[in-house]
Protein backbone atom coordinates (compact mmCIF):
# COMPACT_ATOMS: atom_id res chain seq x y z
CA UNK A 1 0.00 0.00 0.00
CA UNK A 2 2.82 2.42 0.83
CA UNK A 3 4.40 1.96 -2.62
CA UNK A 4 1.09 2.77 -4.34
CA UNK A 5 0.74 5.94 -2.30
CA UNK A 6 4.24 7.04 -3.29
CA UNK A 7 3.59 6.57 -7.02
CA UNK A 8 0.31 8.44 -6.76
CA UNK A 9 2.00 11.34 -4.99
CA UNK A 10 4.50 11.73 -7.85
CA UNK A 11 1.72 12.04 -10.42
CA UNK A 12 -0.26 14.72 -8.60
CA UNK A 13 0.36 18.45 -9.16
CA UNK A 14 2.13 20.30 -6.38
CA UNK A 15 -0.41 21.29 -3.71
CA UNK A 16 -0.71 24.84 -2.46
CA UNK A 17 0.81 25.35 0.98
CA UNK A 18 -1.84 25.67 3.70
CA UNK A 19 -1.23 27.60 6.89
CA UNK A 20 -2.06 25.12 9.62
CA UNK A 21 -0.51 23.15 12.50
CA UNK A 22 1.85 20.28 11.81
CA UNK A 23 -0.79 17.76 12.89
CA UNK A 24 -2.84 18.83 9.85
CA UNK A 25 0.22 18.97 7.58
CA UNK A 26 1.18 15.28 7.91
CA UNK A 27 -0.32 14.14 4.59
CA UNK A 28 1.08 17.13 2.73
CA UNK A 29 4.53 16.60 4.24
CA UNK A 30 4.52 12.93 3.25
CA UNK A 31 3.38 13.70 -0.30
CA UNK A 32 6.08 16.35 -0.70
CA UNK A 33 8.70 13.92 0.61
CA UNK A 34 7.55 11.39 -2.00
CA UNK A 35 7.87 14.01 -4.73
CA UNK A 36 11.50 14.59 -3.75
CA UNK A 37 12.09 11.24 -5.48
CA UNK A 38 10.78 12.55 -8.79
CA UNK A 39 13.08 12.45 -11.82
CA UNK A 40 11.95 15.98 -12.63
CA UNK A 41 14.44 18.39 -11.03
CA UNK A 42 11.88 21.20 -11.05
CA UNK A 43 9.41 19.06 -9.10
CA UNK A 44 12.17 18.23 -6.61
CA UNK A 45 13.08 21.86 -6.09
CA UNK A 46 9.47 23.02 -5.81
CA UNK A 47 8.67 20.24 -3.30
CA UNK A 48 11.77 21.11 -1.29
CA UNK A 49 10.80 24.79 -1.30
CA UNK A 50 7.30 23.99 -0.05
CA UNK A 51 8.77 21.87 2.75
CA UNK A 52 11.14 24.70 3.64
CA UNK A 53 8.22 27.16 3.64
CA UNK A 54 6.39 24.96 6.13
CA UNK A 55 9.08 25.88 8.70
CA UNK A 56 9.06 22.32 10.04
CA UNK A 57 11.83 22.86 12.57
CA UNK A 58 9.82 25.61 14.28
CA UNK A 59 6.75 23.38 14.31
CA UNK A 60 8.83 20.57 15.81
CA UNK A 61 10.03 23.04 18.47
CA UNK A 62 6.41 23.89 19.23
CA UNK A 63 5.46 20.22 19.57
CA UNK A 64 8.30 19.63 22.02
CA UNK A 65 7.44 22.78 23.98
CA UNK A 66 3.72 21.97 24.29
CA UNK A 67 4.36 18.30 25.16
CA UNK A 68 6.67 18.48 28.20
CA UNK A 69 6.16 14.78 28.92
CA UNK A 70 7.17 14.02 25.34
CA UNK A 71 4.86 11.08 24.64
CA UNK A 72 5.91 8.71 21.88
CA UNK A 73 3.52 10.20 19.31
CA UNK A 74 4.78 13.75 19.93
CA UNK A 75 8.42 12.64 19.73
CA UNK A 76 7.66 10.78 16.51
CA UNK A 77 6.01 13.79 14.88
CA UNK A 78 8.78 16.17 15.95
CA UNK A 79 11.50 13.80 14.72
CA UNK A 80 9.78 13.22 11.39
CA UNK A 81 9.42 16.97 10.89
CA UNK A 82 13.11 17.55 11.54
CA UNK A 83 14.09 14.76 9.14
CA UNK A 84 11.84 16.25 6.47
CA UNK A 85 13.33 19.71 7.01
CA UNK A 86 16.87 18.37 6.76
CA UNK A 87 16.09 16.38 3.61
CA UNK A 88 14.33 19.33 1.98
CA UNK A 89 17.33 21.56 2.62
CA UNK A 90 19.59 19.06 0.87
CA UNK A 91 17.36 18.97 -2.24
CA UNK A 92 16.47 22.63 -2.44
CA UNK A 93 18.31 25.22 -4.54
CA UNK A 94 20.93 27.42 -2.94
CA UNK A 95 18.53 30.14 -1.81
CA UNK A 96 20.50 33.17 -0.51
CA UNK A 97 17.62 34.21 1.76
CA UNK A 98 17.38 30.72 3.24
CA UNK A 99 21.14 30.59 3.75
CA UNK A 100 21.05 33.97 5.44
CA UNK A 101 18.27 32.79 7.74
CA UNK A 102 20.17 29.62 8.66
CA UNK A 103 23.30 31.61 9.41
CA UNK A 104 21.32 34.02 11.56
CA UNK A 105 19.73 31.17 13.52
CA UNK A 106 23.12 29.50 14.00
CA UNK A 107 24.60 32.75 15.31
CA UNK A 108 21.70 33.28 17.71
CA UNK A 109 22.03 29.72 18.99
CA UNK A 110 25.77 30.10 19.53
CA UNK A 111 25.30 33.39 21.40
CA UNK A 112 22.61 31.85 23.62
CA UNK A 113 24.70 28.79 24.49
CA UNK A 114 27.83 30.82 25.20
CA UNK A 115 25.85 33.23 27.39
CA UNK A 116 24.55 30.35 29.51
CA UNK A 117 28.02 28.80 29.68
CA UNK A 118 29.51 32.11 30.83
CA UNK A 119 26.97 32.37 33.65
CA UNK A 120 28.05 28.91 34.81
CA UNK A 121 31.78 29.55 34.43
CA UNK A 122 32.04 27.00 31.63
CA UNK A 123 33.53 26.94 28.15
CA UNK A 124 32.96 24.67 25.17
CA UNK A 125 35.44 21.87 24.55
CA UNK A 126 34.95 20.43 21.07
CA UNK A 127 34.01 16.75 20.87
CA UNK A 128 35.22 15.32 17.56
CA UNK A 129 33.60 12.12 16.33
CA UNK A 130 30.92 10.15 18.23
CA UNK A 131 30.14 13.56 19.71
CA UNK A 132 27.69 12.72 22.51
CA UNK A 133 29.75 9.79 23.73
CA UNK A 134 33.06 11.62 23.33
CA UNK A 135 31.70 14.62 25.25
CA UNK A 136 30.54 12.43 28.13
CA UNK A 137 33.83 10.51 28.10
CA UNK A 138 35.66 13.83 28.47
CA UNK A 139 33.44 14.70 31.43
CA UNK A 140 34.06 11.34 33.10
CA UNK A 141 37.79 11.96 32.92
CA UNK A 142 37.35 15.55 34.14
CA UNK A 143 35.27 14.41 37.13
CA UNK A 144 37.73 11.56 37.89
CA UNK A 145 34.93 9.01 37.58
CA UNK A 146 37.20 6.74 35.53
CA UNK A 147 40.91 6.90 34.67
CA UNK A 148 41.64 8.93 31.50
CA UNK A 149 42.69 5.79 29.60
CA UNK A 150 39.22 4.31 30.18
CA UNK A 151 37.33 7.50 29.34
CA UNK A 152 36.69 6.65 25.69
CA UNK A 153 33.64 6.99 23.49
CA UNK A 154 33.69 3.22 22.95
CA UNK A 155 33.33 2.53 26.68
CA UNK A 156 30.59 5.14 26.99
CA UNK A 157 28.73 3.60 24.04
CA UNK A 158 29.03 0.18 25.68
CA UNK A 159 27.66 1.54 28.96
CA UNK A 160 24.67 3.16 27.25
CA UNK A 161 23.90 0.12 25.10
CA UNK A 162 24.11 -2.32 28.02
CA UNK A 163 21.82 -0.21 30.20
CA UNK A 164 19.20 0.25 27.49
CA UNK A 165 19.35 -3.46 26.67
CA UNK A 166 18.87 -4.49 30.30
CA UNK A 167 15.98 -2.03 30.81
CA UNK A 168 14.05 -2.78 27.65
CA UNK A 169 10.57 -1.90 28.94
CA UNK A 170 11.74 1.47 30.25
CA UNK A 171 13.13 2.56 26.88
CA UNK A 172 10.78 1.06 24.30
CA UNK A 173 8.26 3.94 24.59
CA UNK A 174 11.11 6.32 23.71
CA UNK A 175 12.25 4.30 20.68
CA UNK A 176 9.52 4.38 18.01
CA UNK A 177 10.02 1.84 15.26
CA UNK A 178 11.56 2.82 11.93
CA UNK A 179 9.49 0.18 10.13
CA UNK A 180 5.91 -1.05 10.17
CA UNK A 181 3.68 1.58 11.78
CA UNK A 182 6.60 4.01 11.81
CA UNK A 183 7.33 3.65 8.10
CA UNK A 184 6.81 6.25 5.39
CA UNK A 185 3.31 7.72 5.58
CA UNK A 186 2.54 6.23 9.00
CA UNK A 187 0.11 8.19 11.14
CA UNK A 188 0.98 6.61 14.49
CA UNK A 189 4.35 5.60 15.97
CA UNK A 190 4.85 1.89 16.47
CA UNK A 191 7.08 0.28 19.07
CA UNK A 192 10.20 -1.66 18.16
CA UNK A 193 9.98 -5.40 17.96
CA UNK A 194 12.56 -7.71 19.53
CA UNK A 195 14.80 -7.88 16.45
CA UNK A 196 14.75 -4.12 15.89
CA UNK A 197 15.45 -3.44 19.57
CA UNK A 198 18.45 -5.79 19.48
CA UNK A 199 19.69 -4.06 16.33
CA UNK A 200 19.28 -0.65 17.96
CA UNK A 201 21.33 -1.65 21.01
CA UNK A 202 24.01 -3.16 18.78
CA UNK A 203 24.15 0.06 16.76
CA UNK A 204 24.56 2.18 19.89
CA UNK A 205 27.41 -0.07 20.99
CA UNK A 206 29.26 -0.80 17.74
CA UNK A 207 28.55 1.91 15.16
CA UNK A 208 28.81 5.68 14.77
CA UNK A 209 25.06 6.11 15.20
CA UNK A 210 24.20 9.48 16.72
CA UNK A 211 23.18 9.43 20.34
CA UNK A 212 20.30 11.44 21.76
CA UNK A 213 17.99 11.74 24.73
CA UNK A 214 17.48 7.97 25.30
CA UNK A 215 21.25 7.50 25.54
CA UNK A 216 21.61 10.52 27.84
CA UNK A 217 18.92 9.13 30.17
CA UNK A 218 20.55 5.70 30.12
CA UNK A 219 24.00 7.09 30.88
CA UNK A 220 22.72 9.26 33.74
CA UNK A 221 21.17 6.20 35.35
CA UNK A 222 24.03 3.82 34.57
CA UNK A 223 26.67 6.24 35.87
CA UNK A 224 24.47 7.48 38.74
CA UNK A 225 25.28 11.08 37.80
CA UNK A 226 23.11 14.03 36.77
CA UNK A 227 23.65 15.23 33.21
CA UNK A 228 23.07 18.91 32.46
CA UNK A 229 22.56 19.84 28.80
CA UNK A 230 23.01 23.49 27.81
CA UNK A 231 21.09 24.40 24.65
CA UNK A 232 20.15 27.45 22.62
CA UNK A 233 16.38 27.09 23.13
CA UNK A 234 14.02 27.14 26.11
CA UNK A 235 14.80 25.99 28.73
CA UNK A 236 18.48 26.94 28.39
CA UNK A 237 19.50 23.99 30.59
CA UNK A 238 17.88 20.55 30.53
CA UNK A 239 18.70 18.38 33.52
CA UNK A 240 18.64 14.59 33.66
CA UNK A 241 18.93 12.97 37.09
CA UNK A 242 19.41 9.24 37.71
CA UNK A 243 16.38 9.26 40.04
CA UNK A 244 14.27 11.27 37.64
CA UNK A 245 14.26 14.30 39.96
CA UNK A 246 15.00 17.85 38.89
CA UNK A 247 18.54 18.98 39.73
CA UNK A 248 19.22 22.74 39.87
CA UNK A 249 22.04 23.60 37.43
CA UNK A 250 23.75 25.52 40.26
CA UNK A 251 23.81 22.49 42.56
CA UNK A 252 27.21 21.59 44.04
CA UNK A 253 26.56 17.92 43.31
CA UNK A 254 29.00 16.61 40.67
CA UNK A 255 27.31 16.51 37.29
CA UNK A 256 28.20 15.84 33.68
CA UNK A 257 27.87 19.09 31.71
CA UNK A 258 27.51 19.07 27.94
CA UNK A 259 26.11 21.39 25.27
CA UNK A 260 23.61 20.54 22.55
CA UNK A 261 23.88 22.33 19.21
CA UNK A 262 21.06 22.02 16.71
CA UNK A 263 22.14 24.63 14.16
CA UNK A 264 25.76 25.60 14.77
CA UNK A 265 27.21 22.68 12.82
CA UNK A 266 26.47 21.97 9.17
CA UNK A 267 26.32 18.19 9.68
CA UNK A 268 23.34 18.49 12.01
CA UNK A 269 22.87 17.91 15.73
CA UNK A 270 26.04 17.99 17.78
CA UNK A 271 27.18 17.71 21.41
CA UNK A 272 30.24 19.18 23.11
CA UNK A 273 31.81 18.83 26.55
CA UNK A 274 31.68 21.83 28.90
CA UNK A 275 34.78 22.43 31.00
CA UNK A 276 35.39 25.04 33.72
CA UNK A 277 36.90 28.20 32.31
CA UNK A 278 40.66 27.98 32.58
CA UNK A 279 42.20 30.64 34.88
CA UNK A 280 44.16 33.38 33.15
General description of the model:
The chain is an alpha+beta fold and 280 residues long. The chain has helices at residues 2-11, 22-35, 41-53, 56-66, 72-91, 96-119, 131-142, 153-166, 168-171, 194-206, 213-223; strands spanning 122-125, 227-231, 237-240, 256-261, 270-276. It is 52% helix and 9% strand. The protein has a five-stranded mixed beta sheet with strand order 1-5-4-2-3. A hairpin with a 5-residue loop joins strand 2 and strand 3. Helix 1 packs across helix 2 (22-35).
Helix and strand arrangement:
Blueprint (H helix, E strand, L loop, with lengths): L1 H10 L10 H14 L5 H13 L2 H11 L5 H20 L4 H24 L2 E4 L5 H12 L10 H14 L1 H4 L22 H13 L6 H11 L3 E5 L5 E4 L15 E6 L8 E7 L4
Parallel strand pairs: 2-4
Antiparallel strand pairs: 1-5, 2-3, 4-5
Task: Quickly count the helices.
Answer: 11
Secondary-structure-based class equals alpha+beta
User: Proportion of β residues?
Assistant: 5-15%
- Total domains, how many? 2
As a whole number of angstroms, the C-alpha radius of gyration is 20 Å
Topology, number of strands: 5
CATH level 3 topology of the largest domain:
Cathepsin B, Chain A
Q: How would you sum up the major sheet?
A: 5 strands, mixed
Strand order, largest beta sheet: 1-5-4-2-3
Low-confidence stretches: 1-22, 180-187
Query: What is the average of the pLDDT values?
Result: 78
Pfam family, one: OTU
Biased composition (Basic and acidic residues): 56-73
Biased composition (Low complexity): 11-22
GO molecular function: cysteine-type deubiquitinase activity
